[in-house]
Amino acid sequence: MATMIDGESYLGKVLVRPLTESGDIKIYLWPVRCLKSKMGGPTFGVDVRGEEAIRYDTHGPRGHWHKGGYDKLGAGGSHTEFPDDVRDTESQIAWGLNQIRDNGQELLAEAGFPEEAKLLDQELVAAASEAIYARLDEGKDLISKAIEQGLIEA
After folding, report:
1. Cβ pair 40, 93 in contact under 8 A
2. How many alpha carbons lie under 13 Å from residue 10 in its C-beta half-sphere?
3. Can you give the pTM of this predicted structure?
C-alpha cells in the first residue's frame, strides 16, 4: 500500500483487498485523503508486492490519476488527467474501478509487472470494487467533516 505522507490527513478506515489469489497484487482505499494543498477526496490504488503501480486521486475537478508505475516514475512522471467528461468524484471512482476491471492487465504490464498482470483475478477485482463502494458509503459524511475541520476546501 502507498505510504502516507507527513502533513497530509486521512479520514476513514483504510481498506485493502487482494486482486490475485496469492495476494501479491492488492488494491487499497483511503476514504478521504487531505493534501497539504487543501484538496482531497478518496484515493485508491493498486500495488504489486508493496510497490504502487496505479493510483486514482478522485478529488473532483482537481482529480487525476497515475499510471506507468507510481513508485517508479513518481507523482509528476506518472500524472495523468481524467478524460474531460470525468470531472466529479463519483464518476472518477467509477471510471477508475472500470479501468482496473477492463484494462488492469495492460496497466500493470505498462507499470513494469507483465508477469504479475496475467494473474489478475476478475472475481477478486469485482469483490474489491464492491467493498470500495461499501466503505465509501459508510463514510459518506467524511468529506463534509474534512471541510469543517479546514483540511480541504470545498
Report:
1. no
2. 13
3. 0.94
